[in-house]
Specification:
A hairpin with a 5-residue loop joins strand 4 and strand 5. It contains 8 helices and 10 strands. Helix 5 crosses helix 6, helix 5 packs across helix 8 and helix 6 packs across helix 7. About 40% of the residues lie in helices and about 20% in strands. The strands form 3 sheets. Strands 1-8-3-6 form a 4-stranded antiparallel β-sheet. It has a 4-stranded antiparallel β-sheet with strand order 2-7-4-5. By secondary structure, it is of the alpha+beta class.
Length: about 230
């Protein structure tokens, strides 16, 4: 995959797709390709960001520390998504922390390059606003899920999301993105012990099977049925 912004297919997934060749060449001249190891933090909640990060490959969790001190995963970002765009557009500190869930690569684009595009390209501004509005919708949906869905329903939803978004290993059938039990619990808003008990229950009922941290979905229909409101 090309590392030049002009030729990179990844930008088709984000606001950079509306930029012309000249704009992309300028961004390419200032951006830096960074390798991030699993578990490393890309940026921390409250940090003043000096640019945005475009996910080239891999996945990262976006999380926030709750009032009780618990880490709540708000979103899992994957290939093509931009991290930190709201902080740059609104000129505010990062509202979330971003941590690599596996070994990954990101392209860091300095704030100055993005601000120049914002100042001179209305179409780019519109795309950024659309992306930010989408993120707000996702946040709204999460609030509803946390308040109205049971933990069992949220776990079923999370497993279905991991399958849809990241797929399964073609040989083993395991979910490709492997989350720790702590991260899975943080994604559904419950204690790790509760998440482990529910996974055990799903396993006994034949919905899934587990091997270490790996999870394989056996009964997709059963998980989909669980997510429905009664």
């Amino acid at each position: 995959m090309s590392t030049k912004c002009e030729n990179c297919v990844i930008r088709q997934y984000n606001a950079l797709r509306v930029l012309n060749t000249e704009d992309l060449a300028e961004i390419n001249a200032t951006k830096k390709l960074q390798s991030v190891s699993k578990g490393d933090m890309i940026f921390k909640e409250g940090q003043r960001l000096s640019g945005i990060y475009c996910v080239r490959n891999g996945a990262t969790k976006l999380s926030k520390i709750t009032a009780s001190g618990r880490d709540q995963i708000v979103k899992i970002a994957s290939k093509g998504e931009i991290l930190g765009q709201r902080s740059i557009v609104c000129d505010e500190n990062a509202n979330l922390s971003a941590t690599a869930l596996n070994d990954m690569e990101v392209c860091f684009i300095p704030k100055s390059a993005i601000k120049n595009r914002i100042a001179h390209n209305p179409l780019f501004v519109k795309e950024l606003l659309v992306n930010m509005a989408t993120e707000l919708r996702i946040a709204d949906d999460m609030i509803v899920n946390l308040s109205e869905k049971t933990v069992k329903q949220r776990l079923a939803q999370a497993l279905l999301y991991l399958k849809k978004q990241f797929g399964e290993d073609p040989l083993s059938g395991d979910l490709t993105l492997v989350l720790s039990r702590e991260d899975l619990a943080a994604a559904i808003g419950t204690a790790t012990e509760s998440c482990i008990r529910l996974l055990s229950d799903f396993k006994k009922k034949g919905y899934i099977t587990t091997q270490g941290k790996n999870i394989k979905i056996l009964q997709l229909d059963a998980l989909e049925e669980l997510t429905k409101d009664f």
